[in-house]
Amino acid sequence: MNQLEDQAQLDVIKQNKDALLILFGGAHCGVCQTIKPQIYDKFSTKFPDLEMVYIDCEQLQETCAQHGVFSLPVVQVFFMGQKFIEKVRGFSLLELEQEINKTYEKMNS
Length: 109
Hints:
With 109 residues, the protein is α/β, with parallel strands linked by helices. The chain contains 4 helices and 5 strands, in the order βαβαβαββα. InterPro entries: Thioredoxin-like_sf, Thioredoxin_domain. It comes from hydrothermal vent metagenome.
């Protein structure tokens, strides 16, 4: 999972990738640091076309605010540039996987 350094990087990825998962987190967010490798390990094999990126909201506060992220962790999933899924704070990775799978299968069929 690549860590983004600025909004411009995110804009390029949104334009060039049909499926994108963004994890908004922070270095001092224990939950964020715990789920980051779990999301990557679980989803990178199952959804090979899903680009996954991490944004550290402690470093990129303005980018996080532009995306309506004011608490952590937040996962946003985009398909064809449109936000389809948003999970905030307490959420199940299994539920997230099932929701991604519904749209991902339609997109790749």
